[in-house]
Amino acid sequence: MTATLLAGCLVLATGCGAAQPAGSAAPSTPEKPPVVSNPVTTTPTKGPEPVKPTRNAINVHKIQWTKAKPVSKGRKIQLTWWSGVAPCTVLSRVKVTETGKKVTITLYEGTAPKAKNMSCIMIAVEKTTTVKLKKALGKRKVVDGAKK
C-alpha cells in the first residue's frame, strides 16, 4: 500500500506545476501521463536475515516469533520472526527461561541509538537468531514469552 501511495504522489507531483510559457498555445493533442515505475525494488533472499542481540536499543518491547526450530541436537533453538529494517528495528536481547517441562523464549526489539532521529521505511524483513539452552530440549515444549 505504501508503494502505491508513493507512486500516486509521484504522478501528482510530476503532473503539477508544468506551466505553459506566456503567449504559447496549449498543445492540440493531450500529453500522455508520465510512466511511473515502482520506486521500491526488492532482491529475493535465500532465507531469514541472521541477527544477534545489540543490547543497546532504546524503546525496547517484546516481539512475537513465528517459528522455533531445535538445532545442534536440541542444544540450541533457531527462532524466526518478522521485523523492521535495521537500524530502526534491531534485536536488543533474548530472554530464555528453562523448566523441566518447557522453555520460554522472549525476543525484545527496539531502535538503535543512532536511528533515534532518523526517518525509517516501513518494510518487513524476516529475521533469525539462535539461542543456546542450558540443557538439550528433549521433550520440553518451546513457548513464546511475548504471547503471555
Low-confidence stretches: 4-20
Assembly state of the chains shown = single chain
> What fraction of the residues are assigned to beta strands by DSSP?
35-45%
User: What's the shape?
Assistant: elongated
Supply the number of helical segments.
Answer: 1
Strand order of the largest sheet: 1-7-4-3
| Sheet/helix structural class | mainly beta
Could you report the average pLDDT, rounded to the nearest whole number?
A: 82
Radius of gyration: 24 Å
Overview of this protein structure:
This protein has a domain at 48-148. It is elongated, with a radius of gyration of 24 Å. Mean pLDDT is 82; it is low at 4-20. With 148 residues, the protein is mainly β. The strands form two sheets. The chain has a four-stranded mixed sheet with strand order 1-7-4-3, with no helix packed on it. Strands 2, 5, 6 and 8 form a four-stranded mixed sheet that branches. The chain contains one helix and eight strands; from the N terminus they run H-E-E-E-E-E-E-E-E. A hairpin with a 3-residue loop joins strand 5 (90-98) and strand 6.
Question: What descriptors fit this protein?
Answer:
148 residues, mainly beta, four-stranded mixed sheet, 1 helix, 9% helix
In short:
Helices cover 9% and strands 35% of the residues. It has one helix spanning 2-15, and strands at 49-50, 58-63, 67-71, 76-83, 90-98, 102-111, 125-132, 141-144.
Write the layout of secondary structure elements.
Layout: H1 2-15, E1 49-50, E2 58-63, E3 67-71, E4 76-83, E5 90-98, E6 102-111, E7 125-132, E8 141-144
Parallel strand pairs: 1-7, 6-8
Antiparallel strand pairs: 2-6, 3-4, 4-7, 5-6
